[in-house]
Amino acid sequence: MSAHSRAKRGAAACTRKCAARAQRPSRASGRSRSATRRCARRSRNMCGGRAALPRCRSTSRITGGSMQALALLAQLLVGPGDTAVAETPAFRGIRQALAACGARWIDAEVDAHGIVPQDWAARAMFVTPARQFPTGAVLSLERRQTLLRWAQEREAVIIEDDYDSEFRHGGKSLEPLKVLDSSERVVYVGSFSKSLLPGTRIGYAVLPPPLAGPFARALQLTAGAFPVNLLEQKALAAFMACGEYERHLRRMKRSYSRKFQLLLQLARAELSEAFDWMESDAGLHIFGWWKGAERDYLRFRATCAERGVRFAEAQAPAAAGTKYGIYLNFPHLSEDELREGCRRLRLAWEQQSRDRL
Fold it and tell me: Which residue has the higher pLDDT, 117 or 21?
C-alpha cells in the first residue's frame, strides 16, 4: 500500500471516529461552527510557516467547498452586463460562475510572476496569488501591492482563491493578499477538500465587514435552515481539536513532496524538449507550456490518448493561434505509476516527432 493510501486510510478512520463523536447529543452546534471557523483561520499557520490572516474586522463563513464560495461571491458582486477580471489560464469554474450571472470578463494575462496588472474597468477580480492556477506562478509582492491599489481606486473587490498552497515542498511563501489588505477590498477563499477525503466539501471565505451580511444571507438561501455540512464540520473540528489534523497534514506533505520531486525530475529529464516546465515549490500538480506549434500539440495529445495517458490542459491566447499547456496531477498515483506515465508521454513525443518528419 502506498504512503498516500495509508495516509488517506488513516485520515478516514480518524474522521469516522470524530464523526461518531460529533453525533453525540450536544449543545455545541454553534460552538462547532465557531470552532471550524477558528480552524479555517488556524490552517494558515499549520505545518508550513504561513502567515496568519488578520483577526480584526474580518468574518469567516463556512461553505460547501470553495466553489460554492466563489459562485456566491460572483452572484453578489457582478450582475448582467457587469465586468470582472479573470486570469488566463484559470480554473474554469470562475468563468462558469460569471457566465451564470450574465457578467462579462476580461482575460488577464499571466506570466512567470502571476497576473500582469492593468488598470481594468471592472468591479471584481478573481485571482490565485499564492500559486496561480494552473501555472503555479507566485505573484510578486510588488504586483500584490499594485492589485490592492487598483481595487481601492476602482472600488473593486478582489477574490483571493488559495486552492492548494498548504502543500509546500520547499522555500517560503509570501503572505496572503488578505494580510496586506488595509482597505477591506479582499475576500480570502480556502478549502479543506484537498487535505481531507475528496467527498469532504468544506470550504470557507474570510470576508470584509461590508460583505459579511450579504454573503451570510446568500449562503442561507442555498443551505436552507441547516448549516452547510454540519456533521462534517463537527467531525473536522474534533479532528483538529485532538491534533490529528496537523499530524495528518504533515504525513500528506511528506508523501506528496516525494511524488512532486520525482514527477518534476522525470518531466524535466524526459519531456523538456516538448514542454517548458514552470518553476514551482508547492501544490499538487506540475505545469508546462508546449514549445511547439498548435497542430503538433493536437497530434501529441491524440497519441497520448492512444497510449492510455490523459492529462489536464490549459489554453491561452497567443500571437499565432492558441498556446497550450498541460498540468500533471500526482496525489492519486504511486511512484511506479508516475514513472510509467512519463515513459508513455516520452514515447508519444518520440512518435509524434517521427511522424512530423
Answer: 117
